[in-house]
Design brief:
This protein is of the alpha+beta class. 47% of the residues lie in helices and 14% in strands. It has 17 helices and twelve strands. The strands form four sheets. It has a five-stranded mixed β-sheet, with helices on both faces. It has a three-stranded antiparallel β-sheet with strand order 10-11-12, with no helix packed on it. Strands 1-2 form a two-stranded antiparallel ribbon. Strand 11 and strand 12 form a beta hairpin.
Length: 438
Amino acid sequence: MRALGEALARFEGRGDVGADLVALVAALEDLKCRAEGAQVMASAALDAVQRAEQAAAGVPAERRGQGVGLQLALARRESHHRGRQHLGLARALASELPCTLQALRSGRISEWRATLVVRETACLSLEHRAEVDRSLGDGLHLSGERELVGELRRLTYGLDAESVVARRRRAESERAVWLRPAPDTMTYLTALLPVTEGVGVLAALTRAADSARAEGDVRRRGQVMADLLVTRALGQPDGGRPQVPVTVNLVVSDEVLLGGAAGSAEVAGYGPVPGALARDLAGVGPAAEVALRRLYARPADGALVAVDSRSRCFPAGLAELVRLRDRTCRTPWCDAPIRHTDHVRPVADGGSTVLPNAQGLCEACNHAKQAPGWTQVVRAGPRHEVFTTTPTGERHRSTAPPCPRPQALDRPPDHRFDPDRRRGSALELVLRRHLTAV
């Protein structure tokens, strides 16, 4: 296996004719699908082994299997959420959809196509699910994705219409809104709504935007619709750009903030932003009304050393500082929002409620690591590091993200931000005295 991996890593595609390259792409796709099938089998087997070990250890039946999804996520180098999705796929294919599993293992379909089958038949009984699995035949790998989903829904509704209706009702109960970063300091605000409500919202925004443009509004229709969405959600009058008072947790170096140096800052919950935007948010230039929590990062190593306790919008406390330091869930490859401030070394084992023994985790990762066999230790260093050992002995390292620092490409050695200067800059000393006195 290692030899195959090394050969693929060395491949450059030079000197081959087009037909050979197409044949190679097809062969590699077949190999990839077969590998995904083998991975599904290994994942299902791991789940069975771990459940048996937990049962032998006296774990209650409802908690057996806890932590398996996270182990798979770490092995696949992806988020805990995706790891649990993969585990659900493996369980369904291995125990309920043998024909689809065989198509995957033989390289005829991809893991995504198998996922469509699992997803669209999830509401059926085992008997009906097996019937759909047998009836797909060549349509499983010869049809397009939209055609496959349509056929699956037709078969599902024909076998059990009532379950489809119940599934729709469950889906409506999962309506939600969430936010995620977009390029160029923008965001995606996404709403999961029932079809009638989603269509109604879009129609109302479209009508209002068309009316505004007919009255002479110079903004593009998409801009008007976006602004209307915000003003109406915030209860502001229509007719222009929304005015949004916001609270921002901003981590920025003093040179970027006050000296105009090139570099970036960090907005908690979003990520890196240009230094110019950071200066706007902090009031060094034109900006919207903001409530700012000031954090100070030590220039020598980027560690957070102080937090302004006089913020108007957030209560002071250790948990808030942990969230600002870690930004997202500390589990490797998981970028879910932090929901729990967790003790790395549990209190029951003598762990203290102090910053070095704290980490920010999402709810799912925190619960997964409570399963038997998980251990975590902190290693001292300039940046917070946690080493996690899984029940199978795999070891993973999580390092707190670095704080923004100004670019230092051509600085003279005696610059005030020289890492060899242990006391820090003059501004750092002033801020340290000020922030520790409040």
